[in-house]
Design goal:
This protein is of the alpha/beta class and 334 residues long. Helix content is 38%, strand content 26%. It has helices at 13-29, 76-83, 128-140, 155-167, 183-195, 207-216, 229-236, 247-250, 272-279, 302-333, and strands at 5-6, 32-34, 44-57, 64-68, 87-97, 100-107, 117-124, 142-145, 148-151, 169-171, 177-179, 200-203, 223-224, 242-245, 262-265, 291-298. Strands 1, 2, 3, 4, 5 and 6 form a six-stranded mixed β-sheet that branches. The protein is globular, with a radius of gyration of 23 Å.
């Protein structure tokens, strides 16, 4: 079974709800579909709604949501929701073709029309000294900084330590951190300078990155954010020049699109869903400008492997979901 995927929020909400509601009905009354296109024309595939469905109706304070989760949960509550005017806003779909099956999570937001998300990889060259230190640690999995040992005992630990290095500092065995590079800080300075007075949202991974970001850009009065209403309000009112977030703390539900259109991944993430959902804080309905997404990548380091992995997952997901998009486009254009 493949991973559950998420299309990004990139394509009218009402149409999306209507489509998912129709798809649920269609999957229970005759779930065999046929593909189009020269290569696979007429080939059958099936679509089934798994028992993980969210239906929603009403607006503002009167908005109500019914959720069914669990492989053996009855869908009665969700069906009753449809009778009261609710529509499907999210569901888990199973696709089957030629004896193979995939699960894909679909959201009504997937059909929202929003400006482009423009991803730019900012490639950073470490100094010769920094590059040597990086390669030595990658090989030996051990180094000493300021008299403290830094070691990686497993492959997962090594990957984590290498990401710490490209972020500019590493944790020793006692939990203290030691700076090894300011290359990404300098690259971020260039982005912020180019942005002028435009607010910038920065996603960081490690606590040492937060400490160094707060110190380096203290003239801009940076603020950390993990969903606090007052900070969110200030950001959306344009009162925060630099906002620092861990992606896991803001990846769902927060509307931040009114505050800016520039975001920076200081350290990349392996998690495609986290990457897409964090970007969707700005790249969502209500955003009026293209969203500029900068990814800081130290050349010749693990950063390149992380970005390559995320891009690969995204490409595979997009290939699978193109079939559904094409089918949806055909139905809505009739």
């Amino acid at each position: 079974m493949a991973e559950i995927g998420y299309i990004g929020e990139n394509t009218d909400l009402i149409l999306g709800q209507e489509f998912l509601t129709w798809l649920w009905f269609r999957s229970e009354t005759g779930n065999v579909f046929r593909m189009e296109g020269a290569e696979h024309s007429g080939e059958p595939f099936t679509v089934a709604m798994e028992q993980r469905i969210v239906v929603r109706g009403g607006e503002g304070e009167n908005q109500e949501t019914a959720t069914v989760v669990g492989s053996f949960s009855p869908l009665r509550e969700a069906r009753l929701g449809l009778l009261t005017g609710k529509q499907v806003v999210r569901c888990l779909v199973r696709l089957e073709k030629d004896g193979m099956d995939w699960q894909v999570s679909l959201k009504a937001e997937d059909w929202l029309e929003v400006p482009d998300l423009i991803e730019t990889d900012v490639r950073i060259a470490l100094s010769p000294t920094e590059s040597k230190a990086y390669r030595d640690f990658e090989r030996d999995q051990l180094m000493s900084l300021d008299g403290k040992d830094i070691e990686a005992l497993t492959a997962a630990s090594l990957a984590n330590k290498l990401l710490q290095f490209t972020g500019g500092a590493m944790y020793d065995t006692e939990g203290g951190w030691h700076e090894v590079s300011d290359a990404k800080l300098r690259a971020l300075e260039d982005i912020i300078e180019t942005a002028g007075d435009e607010p910038v949202l920065v996603f960081y991974q490690f606590k040492h990155e937060l400490s160094r970001l707060l110190e380096r850009f203290k003239a801009l009065q940076p603020v950390t954010f993990s969903g606090e209403p007052e900070t969110l309000r200030a950001w959306n009112e344009g009162k925060r020049r630099l906002l620092l977030c861990q992606p896991a703390s803001v990846q769902y539900g927060l509307n931040m699109q009114n505050g800016g259109h520039i975001l920076v991944w200081y350290t990349p993430t392996w998690n495609l869903e986290q990457y897409q959902q964090a970007n969707a804080r700005l790249h969502r309905q209500g955003q009026e400008r293209p969203v500029l997404c900068y990814r800081l990548i130290c050349e010749g380091t693990i950063d390149e492997r992380v970005i390559s992995a995320v891009n690969g997952k995204h490409s595979a997901q997009e290939s699978l979901l193109a079939m559904i998009r094409d089918f949806y486009a055909e139905k809505t254009n009739k």
